[in-house]
Every structure is written in C-alpha cells, then in structure tokens.
Design brief:
Elements: H1 19-37, E1 41-44, E2 58-61, E3 72-74, E4 111-114, E5 117-120, E6 129-132, E7 137-140, E8 150-151, E9 154-157, E10 160-163, E11 172-174, H2 181-184, E12 199-201, E13 204-217, E14 225-237, H3 240-251, E15 257-261, H4 263-269, H5 287-291, E16 297-311, E17 319-331
Parallel strand pairs: 10-13, 11-12
Antiparallel strand pairs: 1-9, 2-3, 2-8, 3-7, 4-5, 4-8, 6-7, 13-14, 14-17, 15-16, 16-17
Length: 332
C-alpha cells in the first residue's frame, strides 16, 4: 500500500472554515436566534420615549469619514431585528417591556418619518437610503441637513451576541444605551461617536473558543473521532437581574444537540445574512431555515459539562459571569 503523506480530514484548500470557526459561527447564531425567539427584543416606537425618558426612535447624524456629513444617521441601539416568524402571545420583551404580551411581535422597519412625513424604504430622490441593520444606521444616497428630524419604528435585539474577534477587550463597552441622551445628541465626541463595530452594547454575550480540547476514537477501522472542544460563554450586563436570567437561559441548554450549518456552503451559496456594509442580503436565509435544510448541514454538536462561575469586576456597575461548556462533535 502506498503511503499518503497528506493531511486527513482536510480538503485541498487552507482558506475554508474548519472545526473551530464552524463552531464559533454556529454557537453565535444559535444563541442569537434563541434569545430572539424567546422574546429577547425591544420594540421602539416614535409614539413615546422609553422608561428612562430617552427617545430611542430618533436618529442622529454621524461623522463617518467614508461619507459626507449628513449622509449617515444612527439610532441609540444597533442590531435591528429582521428575522421573520418571531413572536407569540406570551413573549416577554426584556426587562424594559411592560409585561407579558407587551411585545408579542417585533416591529419590522417599513420606512422613515422625516420631518413628520412618512417615507417608505423604496423612496427615491432626496431621501433615497439604505438600512444598515447590523450597525443600526441609515445611509442616505446624498447628504441631508443635519438639523432634519428623523424617526424610526424598529426593534432591536435585547442580548447582543459577539464572537471573540468581534469583542476584543480593546473595544468599548457602552453603558446606559437606554438613557444616555446627552452623548447621543453629540456629533463630535461621546459614546455614540465611536464606530458601532467598536462598541459592545449591554447586555452582551461573548463566545470564546479556548485552546483546550480532547479527542478520542469514535469507531474502529477509520480515522473518525469524538472531539470535545471547550468554550467560554462570557455574560456581561448592567444589573444582576439581566446577568442571572441570561446565564440561566444558556445553562438550561445542557445536553442540547445542535444542527450546525456549513459556513463555507452558506458563503458560497450567497445566502448569508449581511452584505459587507451591514445591509440585508436579498438572498439570505435565516438561522432556522439553514439548520432545517439538509443542503446546508455540516454536522451536529452536543453541549455538555456546563459550569457557571461569577467574575469579580473592578467596575461596580458591571455584572459578569462565565459559563464553561464542552462542545462534543463527532468527525467521520
């Protein structure tokens, strides 16, 4: 028999996503969709302020060096809801809702209110624009006066889920996004002057795959294996109520078996969620559709050995916990 010196379990390309990246993407998608489907969204309507008296429906101009002044406008919260089929009669819209049933469905963006006049998303001419759902921004084709009053009815995701590369610790954790009107009004400095890609809004989850794993043989006669990969799920919140609830919701997924979609196939097929600029891809499939479609399935993963520990923060306004779990993946 001729000896083959090439790698096993590896295709002829080094640029595709393998085990660790596939796992990170899938865990992020699972948690993001899970919280959303459980009622983890906040509805924002131009008819009134939130409980803190903040007008989260109001958009403010942003100084973005890639655009002219007056082209880019943003809301206080990013990560707008776009997924369909979310909601129900007993959905609880986070701690800022008015109770069970108050947010029984998210608000899907249908247009802008500009100086008290409604304009839909297909508008042309002066107010032609595109929506950056990922960063919570509206980008106009041409600049408009910065004293224009722009309102938006939308929903944002209560829990912001990041993988580790999106939330490295040099990025800014942003406090009080529900009440920080002073900074929201500033165009040249303050919390909201920082680019959304460099802001971690709370409450948040950060997924970190750590360099600790163990593999064992799966069956005789081939190179199949059972891979146990350790993962840290960091929970960061501004109060113990949110921290405890989010922690409990995650650890209750003990022994859950997840369908994993193939990141490489999704990318190649063009059904990913966001375009490069944060706008929605017209050909996208949501997470539920991906993991229920055999054309996109990659593998399965079992979540086990969950251990919760509290993190002592130097900041008295930061409540943290870490959930260590093991992701079991069978590779054949």
């Amino acid at each position: 028999m001729t000896y083959d010196p090439e790698f096993i379990h590896v295709s002829d390309r080094v640029s595709i996503n393998y085990i660790t990246n596939q796992l990170e993407y899938n865990l992020k998608s699972f948690l993001d969709y899970g919280f959303l489907a459980a009622g983890g969204f906040i509805n924002v309507q131009a008819s009134g302020n939130n409980v803190h008296g903040m007008s989260q429906y109001r958009l403010y101009p942003v100084n973005d060096t890639n655009y002219k002044q007056g082209q880019v406008w943003q809301t206080a919260r990013k990560n707008w809801v776009h997924e369909s089929g979310i909601g129900g009669p007993l959905v609880y819209g986070g701690v800022h809702g008015t109770g069970y049933g108050s947010n029984n469905a998210p608000i899907y963006i249908s247009g802008l209110v500009i100086d008290s006049l409604q304009y839909n998303d297909e508008v042309a001419g002066t107010y032609a624009h595109k929506l950056n759902y990922r960063d919570g921004r509206v980008i106009f084709d041409t600049a408009i006066p910065t004293n224009t009053k722009i309102d938006l009815n939308y929903s944002y995701k209560w829990v912001q889920v990041y993988d580790y590369s999106e939330a490295e610790w040099w990025k800014e954790i942003q406090y009080n996004t529900d009440s920080n009107t002073d900074h929201l009004n500033r165009k040249d400095k303050g919390d909201f002057f920082v680019d959304p890609k460099h802001r971690v809004q709370l409450p948040a989850i950060v997924i970190e795959t750590v360099p600790r794993s163990f593999s064992s043989p799966y069956r005789l006669g081939d190179h199949s294996m059972v891979l146990d990969q350790d993962v840290l799920v960091h929970v960061v919140a501004q109060n113990h109520y949110d921290r405890n609830n989010i922690t409990d919701m995650v650890r209750l997924q003990q022994d859950r078996v997840l369908n994993m979609y193939d990141v490489n196939t999704v990318s190649k097929s063009g059904v990913y969620t966001y375009n490069f600029d944060g706008t929605l891809n017209a050909s996208r499939l949501d997470y539920k559709s991906l993991v229920q479609n055999n054309n996109y399935l990659h593998n399965t993963c079992r979540l086990k050995n969950m251990v919760v520990s509290e993190v002592e923060s130097v900041n008295p306004d930061l409540y943290e916990s870490t959930i260590r779990l093991t992701a079991e993946i069978i590779i054949v």
